[in-house]
Design goal:
Blueprint lengths: L2 H25 L2 H8 L6 H27 L5 H19 L5 H29 L3 H24 L1 E2 L3 E2 L2 H6 L9 H17 L16 H4 L11 H33 L3 H48 L4 H9 L1 H19 L5 H30 L7 H29 L7
Antiparallel strand pairs: 1-2
Helix pairs in contact: 1-5, 1-6, 1-8, 2-3, 2-10, 3-5, 3-14, 4-5, 4-8, 6-11, 10-11, 10-14, 10-15, 11-12, 11-13, 11-15, 13-14
Length: about 425
């Protein structure tokens, strides 16, 4: 690799670090913060679910934003800069909001700016590196590292073994996750990142002069793949399995905080990302031996097992950690294998649209519905997530719901998806 490419890869790696540090820095602990700032509010579980649903709504609408603006009119690095500069200001404002409805709308506005940047950073990378197959994984992994580092900074410790008292040294606050400090920290990082984005290599619009297609932007021109029996079943189960997935992202941190790890919970949540990196390396090994069907099924059953552990053993720190560590299997065996399956089943001319449809069904529609269901379910069983006693009383009922949903989807997939093996 030339010196120029090495320097470029470093700059793009820094971009990925910023991108996911900002997201992981406040998103994991947002539920804990909302429990504190809106303590005593009616329907607190629905408030949390609605707040997390804002990023799913934005995920549904973001392809239109990217397709219409970044792909046709303005350089990707400039759009990225604008989104993070304005997004940083919105995060700072959100940190001072004390009305649930206002907070939800501010977060929706923020994610409408943030979610398009997930595609923009990929576009900037692919447009400026010589060998994407070899270089991009090394760039993208810095995003996961950024997410992990953010969790450790907010928790101010590495799993209770090594202290990282940066926030305490600056603010004097020990339990940062229950305050607005993560929002303010990420707001500042977003502003810095927005300025840094101006220094990224120029990435002109790739579709300048081409007509904008609403259906293509949402991946709807790949719907014809649904007429294939197995792909249709795969798409349906992908949508359904992401309904219980939403429970993990929205409520696990405040759950393990109350039950075992207190203010250090954000640090323990990073075990999921570490597991994700490790199992990512093992996907080719298992895919060759298990095939697509069993890889996807193992991923679904891992969700079932994780929630069952949370429901049945809420007082066991070791089993809570085991449930978090299952994230690598849950994510990589399902999402990475699913993306590979889509790539192999879709004709070349609609491959990008097919991947967009997969994202729309999972992180868009599936998790959107899941966030509203978890809010409704939490309020329906009168879950008090602000205390250990509240979680002890409601943990089984709350977590057994997504466990049962995931098991039902796994059984449906096992019975109906009949393709013998695909490699």
């Amino acid at each position: 690799m030339s010196t120029t490419q090495s320097n470029l890869q470093l700059r793009l790696s820094v971009m990925m670090f910023f991108q996911f540090f900002i997201w992981g820095g406040f998103f994991v602990t947002m539920g804990s913060y909302l429990l504190e700032v809106f303590k005593g509010a009616d329907g607190i579980n629905s408030i949390i679910g609605s707040a997390y649903a804002t990023h799913n709504w934005a995920g549904l609408l973001a392809p239109l934003f990217v397709g219409l603006i970044a792909d046709r009119y303005i350089n990707a690095e400039r759009v990225n800069s604008f989104c993070h500069l304005v997004g940083g200001a919105l995060l700072w404002y959100a940190a001072g909001v004390t009305d649930p409805g206002t907070f939800i709308w501010v977060m929706f506005a923020y994610f409408m700016l943030f979610m398009p940047t997930l595609a923009l950073v990929n576009a900037i990378s692919f447009a400026n590196i010589e060998n994407p197959d070899k270089q991009f994984p090394g760039i993208r992994v810095w995003g996961t590292i950024g997410w992990i580092v953010a969790g450790l900074v907010v928790a101010q410790t590495v799993l209770g073994w090594i202290d990282i008292p940066l926030i305490k040294a600056i603010t004097g606050v020990e339990n940062a996750q229950a305050t607005n400090i993560p929002l303010k920290m990420c707001a500042i990082m977003s502003l810095i990142y927005g300025v840094y984005s101006f220094t990224l290599p120029a990435t002109p619009p790739q579709a300048k002069g081409q007509a904008f297609s609403f259906s293509k932007a949402l991946g709807l021109d790949a719907i014809k793949l649904m007429t294939q029996r197995n792909f249709g079943i795969f798409a349906l189960c992908s949508f359904l399995i992401c309904i219980p997935l939403a429970f993990y992202y929205a409520r696990t941190n405040d759950f393990i905080s109350a039950m075992a790890f207190g203010q250090e919970s954000a640090s323990f949540m990073t075990i999921g990302q570490i597991s994700e990196v490790l199992f990512m390396l093992l996907v080719p090994f298992f895919l060759l031996r298990l095939g697509v069907k069993w890889m996807l099924l193992v991923g679904m059953l891992a969700w079932t097992l994780r929630y069952f552990l949370f429901a049945s053993f809420p007082e066991s720190p070791a089993l809570l950690v085991a449930g978090i560590a299952l994230h690598g299997i849950c994510y990589d065996f399902f999402f990475v294998t699913g993306q590979l399956y889509v790539d192999r089943k879709a004709p070349k001319d609609i491959r990008a649209s097919a991947q967009g449809l997969f994202a729309l069904l999972t992180y868009g529609a599936g998790m959107l519905i899941g966030n509203y269901i978890l809010g409704w379910w939490g309020d329906n069983i009168n879950l008090d997530g602000s205390s250990q006693a509240g979680w002890l009383d409601g943990a089984f009922m709350f977590w057994i719901m997504p466990s049962a949903l995931a098991l039902g989807v796994a059984i449906l997939f096992l019975i109906t998806f009949r393709e013998k093996k695909e490699v």
